Amino acid sequence: AALSTVVSRWMAALVLLGLLFQKKRALSLSPHPFSPIDKTLVKHILTMGIPNGLENGMFQFGKIALLGFVSSFGTAAITANAVTQTMASIEMIPGSAISLATVTVISLCVGQGDYQQAKAFNRKLLVISTACVSVFTGALLIVQPLIAKLYGLSPETAELTASMFRWHALGGVLLWPAAFNLPASLRAAGDVRFPMVLSIPSMWVFRWGGAYVLHWTLGLGPVSSWISMAILDWGFRAIVYLLRWHTGVWQQKAISCAHPEWVSPSKI
Prior knowledge:
Layout: H1 2-20, H2 39-71, H3 75-91, H4 93-111, H5 115-151, H6 155-174, H7 176-188, H8 193-218, H9 223-247
C-alpha cells in the first residue's frame, strides 16, 4: 500500500511538471535554473504562505495529539477512527477543491478593488460547497454499511465508525464550508494572519480540550473527539469567520498587486 501510494504520487508529479514546462500555458516553469527572481512577488507569496504553513503545521500536530486520546480506548477505537478519517477525507473532496478555487476567484476580485463582486462570489462558492459536500455526505451515509463490510469490521467497530461519521457528516454539512471555505476568502483578500491566530487556540481549546471534557463529563468515549471537532471547533470557527467577513475588516488587508496586468476582469 505504501509503495503504490508513493509510485502514484511520483507519476502525478511527473505529469504536472511536464504540463508546467509547456511555454504555451499562462503559468509555466523556466527550464533555466538561474532565471531572475521577482523579489516583490516572492515577498507576497511568503506573506500568505508562512502563516498558512504554520497553521497547517499546528493543525497536523493537534491531530496527532487527538489520535493519542482516541488510541487510549483500544483497538476498536483506533480502527474506527482510521476508517472514519478515510470516509471524511472523501466527503470533503469537493469542499477542498472549492477552497482552492475560492483563493483564485476572490483574489482577482480584490485585485480589481471590486469588493461587492468578492462578496457575491463568496456567497455563491459557499452555497456550491455546501451543496457538493451534502451530496457526498448523503452518498457516504448510504454506502457506509458496505464500506464497513469491505474493511471487515466487527459489529462493535462498525457501529462506532457509523457513530463517528454521523457527527462528522452533521458538522460537514452545516459548519465545514463556513469554517474552511470562508477563511480561504479571507486569505485571498490578504487577511492571512487572522485565520492562523484563530485556528490554533480553537484547535487546542475546542477540539482537543473539548474531547476530554465531553468524555469525562458525559462518558462519550472516542466519539467525543469527533463531536468536539465537528461541532465545537468547526462551530466556533464558522461563527468567528462569518463575523469577520461581515465586519469588512478584510477589505483593509489587501496585498498590493505588483503586476496589475495579471488581474483581468475577463478572467473572473
